[in-house]
Design a protein that fits this description.
This is Iron-sulfur cluster carrier protein. The chain is of the alpha/beta class. The protein has 12 helices and 15 strands. The longest helix is centred in the C-terminal third of the chain and has 19 residues.
Length: 353
């Protein structure tokens, strides 16, 4: 027999908040509780001042739920309201708090796209590895919270551990990786609203032991929503890289992404045209499946650098699915060399800054 939501709430009503003494239900810290058969997930959303004291409570909740009859797996995520997370009150002439620097990180590059399906996560993973091959210390933050891809792309399925009040990122292929996908069941959906998303992003930025890093690549979700706005307003971003395909519908959405970064005063470091051509595995013929040259032309119109064009090949897809990105799997292949060229252009820009 499967566990019920009522049973979970009754259990939570028997566990007290360490500071107030009230139970977790009365304290109203339980968010996004979802029970689906034997799968249970929930969020404990607390004040920043309570975050450390709530860590053992989170473990207690997870263990208690796991012990219930009918529970197959459980995931309890702790998010904390950080200073400045609430919308600023401008009615009295107050200004928003300044962006909060991420400890030990020199540069943050956001990789975004106007729409999904353009290969943004694959570009993020291979770009991070190509930058590492240039001698930089690199990390990847998977900020696509609804659809985290980096655990699969980087071939990692571990669970981060806490040390000195910070999570230790997972090491993969010579870079540091953090993703909400490490904290949740692989096939479970997250049913979170904006404030929880913002809190989770802030924690993955500031409560993770990133240092020392030369570059942190942030793999953004598609579009121009809560995660993008939270990142650009609350964190000093060195710049953004836009990923698009050559087809018109992708370029339309890429323009929106570029405009969003302009509105938030985030420099756009350049545009990458992914899936520029399809290279036939059998004969080597190149076919412009999605059109040709649209990304480069758009970069000229927008007055931003064109970083390079990447092909659509079977081996690129296969290496991504296998958990060893092509920059590591085939470092001398034509795809990896193009990523290396893009990485060098970005490194040159960072050096100039």
């Amino acid at each position: 027999m499967s566990v019920t939501t009522a049973e979970i709430k009754a259990l939570l009503a028997g566990i007290n908040h360490p500071r107030t003494g009230q139970d977790l239900i009365a304290e109203d810290v339980v968010r996004a509780l979802k029970v689906d058969g034997g799968h249970v997930q929930l969020v404990l959303d607390v004040l920043a001042q309570d975050a450390q004291a709530m860590l053992p409570v989170r473990d207690q909740v997870e263990a208690a739920i796991a012990a219930l009859d009918g529970v197959e797996n459980v995931s309890v995520l702790l998010t904390a309201e950080r200073k400045g997370d609430a919308p600023p009150d401008l009615s009295a002439g107050r200004t928003p708090p300044p962006p909060e620097q991420v400890d030990g990180v020199k540069h943050i590059i956001a990789v975004g796209s106007g729409k999904g399906g353009v290969g943004k996560s694959t570009v993020s993973a291979n770009l991070a590895l190509a930058l590492a091959d240039l001698g930089l210390k690199v990390g990847i933050l998977d900020a696509d919270i609804y659809g985290p891809s980096q655990p699969k792309l980087m071939g990692s399925n571990g669970r981060p551990v806490a040390m000195n009040e910070r999570l230790i990122p997972i090491a993969a292929h010579g870079v540091k990786v953090m993703s909400v996908g490490f904290l949740m069941e692989e096939n479970r959906a997250l049913v979170w609203r904006g404030p929880i998303l913002a809190g989770a992003l802030q924690q993955m930025l500031h409560d993770v032991a990133w240092a020392p890093l030369d570059v942190l690549i942030v793999d953004l979700p598609p579009g121009t929503g809560d995660v993008q706005i939270t990142l650009t307003q609350k964190t000093p971003i060195t710049g953004a890289v836009i990923v698009t395909t050559p087809q018109d519908v992708a370029l339309i959405d890429a323009r929106r992404a570029i405009d969003m970064f302009h509105q938030t005063e985030t420099p756009v470091l350049g545009l990458v045209e992914n899936m520029s051509t399809h290279i036939c595995t059998s004969c080597g013929n190149e076919d412009d499946v999605f059109g040709h040259g649209g990304g480069e032309a758009e970069a000229k119109v927008q007055g931003i650098p064109f970083l390079g064009a990447l092909p659509l090949t079977r081996v690129l897809r296969e290496t991504s699915d296998s958990g060893t990105p092509i920059v590591r799997a085939m470092p001398d292949g034509p795809e990896a060399l193009r990523f290396a060229e893009i990485a060098q252009k970005l490194k040159d820009q960072l050096a100039a800054l």
